[in-house]
Amino acid sequence: MSEIIELSNKIEIAILNGQDYSDLDVEFHTIIAISSRNLVVENLIPILNMNIRSLIDVTHSVLKEHTILSHKKIANAIKERNEEMAEQSMKEHIEINQNYLE
User: Fold this and answer.
1) Which of 37, 61, 62, 76 has an alpha carbon within 20 to 30 A of 17's alpha carbon?
2) How far, rounded to the nearest angstrom, does the alpha carbon of residue 43 sit from its chain's CA centroid?
3) How many CA atoms lie within 13 A of 46 on its CB side?
4) Cα-to-chain-centroid distance, residue 70
5) pTM of the full structure
6) How far, in Å, CA of 102 to CA of 100, rounded?
7) Residue 13 CB coordination number (10 Å)
8) ∠ at Cα 51 (64, 20), nearest 5°?
9) Which residues, other chains included, contact 64 with Cβ-Cβ below 8 Å and sequence gap of 6+?
């Protein structure tokens, strides 16, 4: 769990410093997927990782603030073991990214 919080913080620092954060973002989502202990989600990791990198490229970092806030919200919900909040935060994160692409 501390690794998820740490990655969220590293992503924020990278974004604020104008650095590429795609590897950190992929790692963040991968750890969450593995931690879910959901075999379907775990098997989707390669597809998720490819989509994360593509999304970062497409948005040209327009969603930087959203990324920082949503990752913090997700990480804190996981830290607090609040499954409902974690799930809701992940859904919001996905929906905002999808809406941007439409």
Assistant:
1) 76
2) 17
3) 1
4) 7
5) 0.82
6) 6
7) 13
8) 40
9) 15
Q: Tokens 């997927």 map to which residue?
A: 33
Reading the chain (102 residues) residue by residue, the pLDDT tens digits are 689 999 999 999 999 998 989 999 999 999 998 888 878 888 888 888 888 877 887 776 678 888 899 999 999 999 999 989 998 998 998 888 888 877
- What are the structure tokens assigned to 66, written together? 């959203």
* Residue labelled with tokens 């607090």: 80
Which residue type occupies 99? N
Structure tokens given for 100: 């941007």
Dig out the tokens for 96 from the structure.
Answer: 């905002």
C-alpha 43/C-alpha 49 separation (Å) is 11
**Cα–Cα distance for residue pair 102/92, rounded to 1 Å:** 15
